[in-house]
Amino acid sequence: MRHFNLNHAIAIGVLVSTGVFVEVQASSTTDNGDTGQSDVVRMLDEKRVMFRDMSGSTTEAINVLRHKYGVPVSFISVADEKPEAVQFGDEELTLRNALDEFVQTRGAYTYSLVAGRLVVHPKSEPFKKVISAIEIRNKPRLDAMWAFVEHLKRTHVEFANLIPPAILGNPEAPLFAEPVSALKEKATVVEHLAALLGDNPNVMFSIVDGPRSGTRLFVLSKLKSSEAKRLPKPKDRRTTEPRAD
Questions:
Q1: Distance from C-alpha of 72 to C-alpha of 54, rounded to nearest angstrom
Q2: What is this structure's pTM?
Q3: β-strand partners of 77
Q4: Pairing state of beta strands 73-76 and 203-209?
Q5: Which residue, of 39, 177, 182, 245, is most buried by count of CB atoms within 10 Å of its CB?
Q6: Residue-level pLDDT at 39
Q7: SS3 of 20, please?
Q8: Which residues pair with 242 in a beta bridge?
Q9: Other C-beta atoms within 10 Å of 238: how many?
Q10: What was the pLDDT predicted at 5?
Q11: For the segment 177-209, what is each residue's pLDDT rounded down to a tens digit?
Q12: What is the mean pLDDT of the chain?
């Protein structure tokens, strides 16, 4: 079991105050999705959202997509981003069109399909760096993510300020305990992170500004059963399909 340190203790307050925190349900069941439902690409083209709901800060927009529309979107924030509210119009758009308009307005962001996962991330960031494979096989998700983050911190100086995820809730919950494995070949950092989410399509990661200046906080979260829209397992765990700017 992972233990809290001071950074983790302070981080809990940050997560709650910013809305990044997601309540972990102590369920012993795993929701791996329904193969009869649409995949992530189809979700982008068929799910419709009211664009005005994405008004506000970037974090607020991501939380709306997750908790109002049930979109399992992972998120990497721009470092030291100053909250800036943006007001959008009343159009009803497909998720893809809404994200296109969103990143065009925000400027610093783009979005990609990474190993079957939807990720909103900065256009320029070290997470695109290609790194060697790390041996992680059938480890609980929290332990796997912790090991990967510690590997990054040891081997790549640009990740030295990244705080590993902490347990917040039941350590036996599927969010933390489901077994996952790392990619066996070289890949970008974000591809490895997406792979370590495992087969549960409702699990997401966030990397946001941490509790202390200059730190970055890694967060694992999962859509609640009332929010999840039952997506299938990611089919391709290696292919990256970036948005065409």
A1: 15
A2: 0.78
A3: none
A4: parallel
A5: 182
A6: 76
A7: coil
A8: 112
A9: 14
A10: 47
A11: 999 998 888 999 999 999 999 989 999 999 999
A12: 80
